[in-house]
Design goal:
heterotrimer, A mainly alpha (206), B alpha/beta (251), C mainly alpha (760), B: 251 residues, Rossmann fold, 6-stranded parallel sheet, C: 760 residues, two-stranded antiparallel ribbon, 46% helix, rod-shaped
């Protein structure tokens, strides 16, 4: 059973911040600014809590269970402890500590990004098996078209006005479609926010 | 910022709030029952939940790497609502649903949702807090962590609702290897294009926010859908009016 | 008066009664059924009493006229007792022993035992409490009446002495003592030794006054008689009439203290009802009461098993003969005169109607001398079974009775030995539970294995076959071949892309197509940067992940070099936790190509801006409050670079490096209103370009550089050679290769669709 106090706090907090945005009175700004600071701080603390939960609640727990993933959990925990220790000791501005990001994290994530090319290509191959309809066919053709356009092989189109206009039009179509989708998403976000502000939707307990 | 923008924003907010409350009333719902178009994704999701309950398998819900302090938190909130509803529907399953997210605040909220459902079903002692976890702090590390969580957990259905980027492709590829049903929806255009190519069912645009209503959560969800339709028509009328006025030379 | 014998239960009833008092069967006045087993020892008494009834009646009448109001049955008992005593005193033994013997044999075992035991009790009881009183041992018992069916033919010979005692109801004076002191004199059997009773077994002295008892009985039993109207205590009609004359007299509740000494009209008997009661009670509580006695000296020990069998409610007259032979040594009737006096019987104090059948047909059997060994060994179950006649239950009881296995036979089969196993192992005289064939004390062990019948197995096999067929049809598992196919396809794709990239510099180099036009947004960005004032710093914000750092390093390289060549101070911050490090790396890489640009004096790093869009909003409102320190925790806004900056519009330009359209939109929405005329420039990934274009077209974004071609165009505008041009061939080759693969694969999938099975 959700406590009415938590609902009241959530509603009041949201309404105060919203009122401070719509009506920039000094009093409202004086309330809104600290509340935003608290929200940012809480988000950071929540991130720290989540990391600790990941280390202890997942990987440390996995050490007690039998399985092949115990080794990787050991690596994760040891790495976390070492990097956190160096970070607290050296500081994030230390060039040597920054090499953890530049020499380890960036290559790994860049490699994962490269995997996307293969994954997306393979998915595009089999897309027509899954989406055997007009929308799927249009999507498939759009993928081909824009890959060709963005590859730059149609640079000669600059000399052909019709083709140039056509390609310019093609550039605007995704933007238009995206704009319509974004409008719908915005309306949905608005309705979701309103539901929380009026207390109809409570994704929290207490 | 224009001086009228705050006023317009306040009017829009008040109008939306009033309409949601109005359509949430039982009298209006009874007198003017909502009629929504058929959403195939919601139907298939219900079926997948039923199959998961029968098979005794798990449903994996991904909330993305967005944070509550971002404007994209609305999709995360929709994902939390979907998680709540899935947890209710799958409460009789042998394996409770699992939730992964890419931010700490979403991890705490998802854990709270699962805990609330466990309280309602009197199975708090059997709840594993590790079922709601932050798989990674960066989008790609989150995607890899979520794929790893799906493996060996008996997942039969993967639901991706939230703020995703290009890393969603890795998530869906991992779910494909599991042979599980994939339903995805995001506020990101990039993610939606990837979802359309890889997922079994994709929620385009505001269908993401309509999913909780189709799963039968609360009357407020259905009311907000109706309000969204009304506001959409208002926006369409405004756009058409602006176009016409531009063409007519009035603006 | 002849009693009305019930045809069902064969109990005597009042002749005037319409229904049997015991079993409520209808009685016909004319019916005079004879007992089934005409061995009821009490019948003999009845016959005798019948002969002497008239004089007894006369006596009883006389008694009734007396103020004491002694009931007839009591009077009869007294008379008989008196006669027995006289017989004993005279030493007459020429009694028709046969009759006596028959009657003795008809006596139930418990009775014999009591008699035998009484002989021992008698001596103690008289000395201790001569004033003790006793009441009738034959308290009305419906169970007795119901179950006293037939008596065994051969009862013990103690009938006479027992009856004498019963008739007297109290031992008095020296006569009692003399009689009691005669060892074995009261024992109708062959002078069996009497075992002295334990203190518990000591019977109270039967010292009571018959008259007083009669008076007491008037108070006690008259209501009983009024209720029951039948039974062995029932008075005959004449007696009733006589008693009714006394109804007017108030009933006096007498106690035992009120009882006076016995009248001379009744010979004192050696019978002690209290002893009998105690004996019965002890026997019920302690089955070994009679069994564990010390070996008597020439006394007969009680047959504990006989006593247990009797239970005082289940008299087995067929076994009475055997039991009679083992009459209890401590029987209170041990001193009873075993002499079968016909005259005594004729003048039996008991009216036949008053006595129950079992009592009427009981015969005093000969007491057999008991051995010193355990009594259980002496008994023979066969003999018991042969001697005991089964009691006949009334028809109505038999009809409602639930048949139990071995219940009927269990009573007759009573092993004489003690049990060798079980809780009562080694204890003699215990009741043997009937053997139902199942050890009821042990729970039934079902075992841990599942017991499945053949039918169940068959049904389970059918169900398993049905389920297997269903699973086969809807197999959701991806077969191994399909998984391997996926891996192979991915490997092929990876290898082909890598080969295309590697070969692009050599094989595909002649086919590279350079862009002809510059994108307007890139040109605008170039113009904005070229127009920046060198006095104002430029804010560089990084909002991208490490994954796209490679792409953005190409896109931002030219722009950063352009800024450095203008000798513009740079302020770096990141809304990503790892962005500040990545931004520092980008600056360092760009500075390598620009000579004379000192990073320590021209670049200040503010660090990480938390909160996402909320942090950006805070930065837009008050940058000094949002980022007060540098990443080295130094005060940032006192430096030479930032001392003149109070808000975002004090910067020369704001350049945002982003990989997502959403984050770019956030920056536009949050900081654009506060920038004023300060240009807002974006360096974005190719995926964010379409969504940023409207903002550029609306004027909110001054310019942006998107993707590979954007960076290439900016390089060309800058007229510098960087990495973008060198990698153009690889970029185009990979793009075209992907196009070909997707096109071919899609067409193949369109022509040959493959069903993809997945859950849901």
């Amino acid at each position: 059973m959700k406590s009415p106090l938590s609902v009241l706090v959530a509603i009041l907090s949201g309404l105060l911040v919203l009122a401070g945005y719509f009506f920039p009175f000094p009093a409202l700004i004086a309330i809104r600014t600290p509340m935003l600071d608290w929200a940012v701080t809480l988000a950071g603390i929540a991130g720290l809590v989540a990391i600790i939960n990941l280390m202890i609640g997942v990987h440390l727990k996995r050490l007690r269970e039998a399985g092949s993933k115990r080794f990787f959990s050991v690596v994760v925990i040891i790495t976390f402890v070492i990097v956190a220790g160096f970070g607290f000791y050296l500081g994030p501005a230390d060039p040597n500590f920054q090499k953890v990001v530049t020499a380890i994290q960036m290559p790994i994530e860049t490699s994962l990004m490269a995997l996307l090319a293969i994954t997306l290509t393979y998915s595009s191959l089999k897309m027509l098996q899954r989406q055997r309809n007009w929308m799927g066919l249009v999507f498939f053709l759009s993928v081909i078209l824009f890959l060709v356009i963005n590859s730059g092989v149609l640079a000669f189109s600059a000399e052909i006005p019709v083709l140039q206009d056509l390609l310019s039009g093609f550039h605007h179509i995704p933007a238009a479609g995206a704009r319509g989708i974004l409008l719908g998403i915005a309306l949905g976000s608005l309705a979701t926010g309103v539901r929380i502000l009026i207390g109809s939707d409570k994704p929290y307990s207490g | 910022m224009s001086q009228y923008e705050p006023l317009i924003g306040a009017v829009v907010f008040l109008l939306t709030s009033g309409l949601v409350i109005f359509f949430s009333s039982k009298k209006i719902r009874t007198k003017f029952p909502p009629v929504f178009r058929k959403l195939t994704a919601a139907i298939k999701l219900r079926r997948a939940i039923g199959l998961a309950v029968e098979d005794g398998t798990r449903i994996h819900v991904s909330l993305g790497s967005g944070s509550l302090v971002d404007p994209a938190n609305a999709s995360a909130l929709a994902g939390l609502g979907t998680l709540n509803r899935i947890a209710q529907l799958a409460s009789t399953s042998d394996l409770p649903p699992m939730c992964t997210s890419g931010s700490g605040d979403l991890q705490i909220l998802s854990q709270d949702v699962l805990r609330g459902n466990a309280l309602n079903t009197h199975s708090l002692g059997q709840l594993d807090p590790g079922l709601a976890r932050m798989a990674g702090v960066t989008p790609f590390s989150y995607a890899i962590g979520a794929v790893e969580s799906m493996q060996d957990s008996g997942t039969s259905a993967s639901v991706l609702i939230g703020d995703f980027g290009a890393e969603a492709s890795l998530l869906l590829d991992g779910a494909e290897n599991q042979g599980s049903y994939k339903l995805a929806g995001s506020n990101s255009i990039i993610a939606q294009s990837i979802f359309y190519a890889q997922a079994d069912d994709t929620l385009i645009g505001e269908e993401l926010y309509a999913l909780p209503a189709y799963l039968g959560s609360h009357a407020a969800h259905q009311a907000s859908l109706r309000v969204q339709d009304i506001l959409r028509f208002i926006v369409i009328l405004i756009l058409l009016g602006a176009v016409l006025s531009k063409l007519a030379g009035w603006a | 008066m002849a009693e009305n014998i019930c045809p069902i239960c064969e109990r005597p009833n009042d002749p005037s009664a319409e229904r049997c008092w015991y079993c409520q069967a209808e009685l016909s006045p004319s019916e005079q059924p004879t007992p089934v087993n005409g061995t009821d020892w009490l019948n003999g008494l009845r016959e005798e009493s019948g002969q002497t009834l008239e004089p007894e009646i006369t006596d009883s009448t006389i008694e009734n006229e007396k103020p004491e109001e002694v009931p007839d049955w009591l009077a009869r008992i007294r008379t008989r007792e008196q006669m027995e005593r006289e017989a004993q005193a005279s030493g007459l033994t020429a009694q028709p022993e046969s009759t006596v013997a028959e009657k003795k044999e008809e006596l139930p075992d418990w009775l014999k035992e009591i008699k035998a035991g009484y002989s021992g009790k008698k001596s103690d009881s008289e000395q201790e409490d001569p004033a003790s009183e006793s009441v009738s041992p034959f308290a009305p018992s419906t169970v007795d009446d119901q179950e006293s069916k037939t008596a065994s033919e051969d009862h013990g010979d103690d009938n006479d002495e027992w009856l004498s005692r019963l008739a007297a109801w109290k031992p008095t004076d020296a006569e009692d003592q003399s009689i009691n002191n005669e060892p074995g004199a009261v024992d109708s059997d062959a002078a069996e030794p009497e075992t002295p009773l334990t203190p518990m077994e000591t019977a109270p002295k039967p010292q009571f006054d018959m008259d007083s008892l009669a008076a007491l009985n008037q108070a006690e039993f008259r209501p009983f008689e009024a209720k029951r109207g039948s039974g062995w205590q029932k008075l005959n009609a004449d007696e009733l009439e006589a008693e009714q004359q006394d109804d007017s007299q108030p009933e006096k509740q007498l106690s035992f203290e009120d009882l006076s000494a016995a009248e001379e009209e009744l010979k004192p008997a050696n019978f002690d009802i209290n002893a009998l009661r105690e004996t019965i009670a002890v026997q019920q509580t302690d089955p070994d009461f009679f069994g564990e006695k010390t070996p008597p000296e020439d006394d007969e020990q009680l047959d504990e098993e006989e006593l247990t069998d009797d239970d005082l409610q289940h008299f087995n007259f067929p076994g009475a003969e055997n039991k009679a032979s083992l009459s209890p040594e401590g029987s209170i009737f041990s001193e009873a005169q075993p002499e079968p006096f016909k005259d005594e019987f004729d003048s039996s104090p008991f009216v036949p109607d008053d006595l129950p059948d079992w009592l009427a047909t009981a015969r005093l059997g000969n007491h057999e001398k008991r051995g010193s060994g355990p009594r259980s060994e002496e008994l023979d179950a066969g003999e018991l079974a042969e001697g005991l006649d089964k009691a006949n239950m009334p028809a109505w009881l038999q009809a409602v009775r639930v048949p139990t296995p071995d219940a009927d036979g269990s009573d007759a089969i009573l092993p004489g030995e003690s049990t060798d196993a079980g809780l009562l192992a080694g204890i003699s005289g215990t009741l043997q539970t009937p053997n139902f064939g199942v050890d009821i004390r042990k729970p039934v062990g079902y075992g841990s294995t599942l017991k499945v019948s053949e039918r169940q197995k068959h049904s389970a096999n059918l169900f398993a076959n049905l389920v297997d067929e269903t699973f086969i049809e809807n197999d959701v598992k991806i077969p191994k071949l399909t998984k391997n196919r996926h891996i192979i396809w991915r490997l092929v794709l990876a290898v082909s892309l890598i080969l295309g990239i590697l070969l692009s510099t050599t094989l595909f180099a002649p086919y590279i197509i350079q862009p002809a036009l510059f994108p307007p947004e890139v040109v605008s960005a170039y113009d904005q940067v070229d127009a920046l004032s060198a006095e104002k710093p430029v804010l560089l914000t990084g909002d991208f992940e490490a994954a796209v750092a490679g792409e953005l390093s190409w896109s931002s390289q030219s722009l950063l070099e352009h800024l450095m060549r203008r000798n513009i101070n740079l302020v770096i911050l990141s809304s990503n936790s790892s962005g500040s490090t990545l931004m520092t790396r980008l600056i360092e890489n760009a500075a390598i190509n620009v000579e004379g640009y000192d990073l320590s004096t021209h670049v200040i790093t503010l660090g990480y801006l938390p909160g996402g869009a909320t942090g950006v909003q805070l930065l837009a409102g008050n940058p000094r409050a949002a980022m007060p320190y540098t990443h080295n925790l130094d005060v940032a806004w006192n430096s030479n670079i930032l001392h003149s900056v109070n808000s975002l519009n004090d910067f020369g330009a704001v350049v945002v490096l982003s990989d997502k359209s959403e984050s770019s939109r956030n920056w536009v929405e949050q900081i654009r209103p506060g920038l004023g005329t300060t240009p807002l420039i974006f360096v974005v990934s190719a995926q964010a370009a379409p969504l940023l274009q409207p903002y550029y077209q609306s004027g909110q974004v001054s310019g942006y550089i998107a993707g590979f071609y954007g960076s290439l165009a900016y390089e060309q505008l800058l007229q510098q050679t960087s990495g973008s041009l060198a990698h153009l061939g690889a970029f185009q080759s990979a793009m075209l290769l992907v196009v070909i693969i997707i096109l071919v694969g899609g067409l193949v999938a369109l022509i040959h669709p493959t069903s993809t099975e997945r859950k849901g």
